[in-house]
Amino acid sequence: MLARGGVGPDAARPLVARHRPRYGCAMTRPSSTSDHVRAILALGLPLIGSHLAQMSLHVTDTVMLGWYGVTELASVVLGASIFFITFILGAGFAQAVMPMVAEALGRGDEAQVRRDTRMGLWLSIGFGAATYPVFWWSGALLLALRQDPEVAALAQDYLRVAGLGMIPALLVMVLKSTFSALGRTQIVLWATLAAVAVNAVLNWALIFGKWGAPELGVTGAALASVAAQTMSLLALALYAAVQPALCRFHLFQRFWRPDWPALARVFALGWPIGLTGLAEGSIFQAAALMMGWLGTVPLAAHGIALEITALAFMVHVGISNAATIRTGHADGAGDPRGLRDGARVAIGLSLAVCFVIVTLFLTVPQQIIALFLDLSQPESAEIIAFGTILLALAALFQVADAMQVMALGLLRGLRDTRVPMALATISYWLVGIPTSYLLAFPLGLGGPGLWLGLVIGLTLAGALLMIRFWLRAPRPPVHSGPNILGG
């Protein structure tokens, strides 16, 4: 079976022994706090950089369209929200690949790496094709949700083009998950940075009509994003095909050939991840829609504040991804002590980041928001004032937001996704969204009330998910040696 899987003439050698030297920190077992910190940062820093760069694609759109016009900015806030809520749902299959590949490496089954990756790609293509009609008819959807007709029409223009990038964006996510589980996070970072550069240059040309290009406004921003996503996909696919440590896995070998058991496993693990992301993302999407009822200026301020908090959140996502990989390796290798100690270190790193972010949100909010605006426009002062209030509220939920994403990452490393999905759904849909509406409209708090609802939903999710992880994490034998971190 191994030879047929294409692993080569050294298949008779122990697989774990062949893997560990090749993947460095991703496959070792740290024995001290500093070892855990180094291992998590070695994986996490490039992933953080990649997530920040990926987010920068859309921050670039927001900044440049903020310079272009407030109505255009508001339309892309809505359009990007719909794109990302759909993307988050489909990305569950890509995110399922990461712990599955990590666990397969932990037990030394490299043929399964190819199978899981291939079926993740299959599911992503199917999802992207099935959801494009949502983007094509998004204008009617937004009008039904009581959005301004001009904003809804521009958002539909944006989504009809941007929706073409759903399939390449999801395929990039699958490859990133596989590369990350294999410890190849540097290429993920560099490919994403290149995409940011391409997106920025094309945005400047196509939004504003520079260098002889047509002035396309929101459509130009969408075209730039699709081009950047496609470029990232081609770069990562080429790397997988030619890089010696990766081409041995033959990730695209007989791509047309189904592997039904692997597809079923990726689907079973991935759909709860997608719905969990949808539950979390929907609370922000619902806030965006309800903010649209308050007017264009509050919606624009919400979009900017959300971009800023999302950039901060990407740091936690990178640490969480590293924790998923480390947890999957430790679980596959039967190392409960390393699993629990690594979790404590990852949580501690995320809390340290929270301290820095809260400090920035409370001390320099106006300066941060001003980066997204043309200050000569008359609405800018009002947007900055409203956005400053929202960033102060965002500071309240930083710890809760960090803890919920850390717990989700750790639980995914244990391949535990269904109960976390239920806990997230309760926290966001049954508590967060209704509370946001109640505070904003019946109680008259407006935009700040919407964000207070976010604080309550995220706090509940963070508490429930952390309790779930520590109840589920395997415990080491009583006499397995000293606990480096206590507890």
From TrEMBL:
Judging by the UniProt lineage, the source's domain of life is Bacteria
Report the InterPro entries cross-referenced here.
Answer: MATE_fam, MATE_MdtK, MdtK-like
Is this entry keyworded Transcription regulation?
no
Q: Name one GO molecular function term.
A: antiporter activity
A GO biological process held by the record: monoatomic ion transport
Annotated membrane topology is: Multi-pass membrane protein
Entry keyword Transmembrane helix: yes
The cellular location(s) given in this protein's UniProt record come to: Cell inner membrane
Spans through the membrane: 37-53, 73-98, 119-138, 158-175, 187-208, 220-242, 262-279, 299-324, 345-364, 384-411, 423-444, 450-471
Please list the coiled coil stretches.
none
**A GO CC term?**
plasma membrane
Which UniProt keyword terms apply here?
Antiport, Cell membrane, Ion transport, Membrane, Transmembrane, Transmembrane helix, Transport
Annotated protein name in UniProt: Multidrug-efflux transporter
